[in-house]
Structure formats: C-alpha cells, structure tokens
Amino acid sequence: MADETTIQRAPEGGASSSGAGPRTGGHGGPRAGGPGNAGGQGGRKFFRRKKVCKFCTEKIDAIPYRDVRLLQQFVAERGKIVPRRLTGVCTTHQRRLTKAIKQARNIALLPFAARY
Fold it and tell me: Is residue 8 part of a domain?
C-alpha cells in the first residue's frame, strides 16, 4: 500500500519546470503591434511597400568592386553583408554584390569586421 504523503505536486500558481512562467521569454499570448496590426482599432491591415531592386531599376549590370560608396550601403556597421530581404535586391544582383564586396575586402577597400 502506497503512502499518500510521499506524493508531491507542483504548485498550481507558481513556476513549473517547463519554463512557462510569466517572466520567461516564451512564445504565446497576443502581441500589440504585431504583424498585420497597425496598432489601432478597426481591423486595418498594415501596408508594406514591395522593395524593388536598386540595380534593376537603374539598369546596372556589372557591380564594380572599386565603388566603395555603393558597396557600403549593403554592408552593416559590423562588417556583415546585409541580407536580400532587408535591402530588396534581387537574387542575381545579390550574388554579384556579394562577390564585389568580397573582392573589395580582399584588396582592403572594405573591412572584414568592425573595429572595437
């Protein structure tokens, strides 16, 4: 016969071992100002303009690795290449841009990483 006093239960209102307490950074619950919400009432959706490739609109085929001012627009402060979803550059131009940035880094026109 099992003794009922040895059975322990987790407190119902406290934090459990799953980490789903109120102070954890878990996913759950509605978020104010999330995607599709303009922050106001009325159910109005947020409209984001489609990003257009800068090189396609200006009809630039070759991306010169010596044009540091152009390339710096696509390199973050830390020295990382900014991804396509943030810049709006098309796939083919992103590949050419990456090659040009790497060439400029190799001949010391652009830094590999930021200075601290």
Answer: no
Name the token pair of 90.
Answer: 């098309």
**Residue among 62, 61, 82 at smallest CA distance from 72:** 82
| Domain CATH for 98 | 4.10.640.10
Is 95 contained in some domain?
yes
User: How many domains, the chain?
Assistant: 1
The pTM of this model reads 0.59
Give the end-to-end CA distance of the chain in Å, rounded to a whole number: 68
C-alpha distances in Å from residue 85, one per residue of 18, 23, 32, 90, 112: 35, 32, 24, 9, 22
Digit-coded pLDDT (tens) for 6-58: 666 556 655 545 555 555 555 555 555 555 555 556 667 877 788 899 999 99
Q: Does 13 fall in a domain?
A: no
- Tell me how crowded residue 75 is: count the other CB atoms within 10 A of its CB: 19
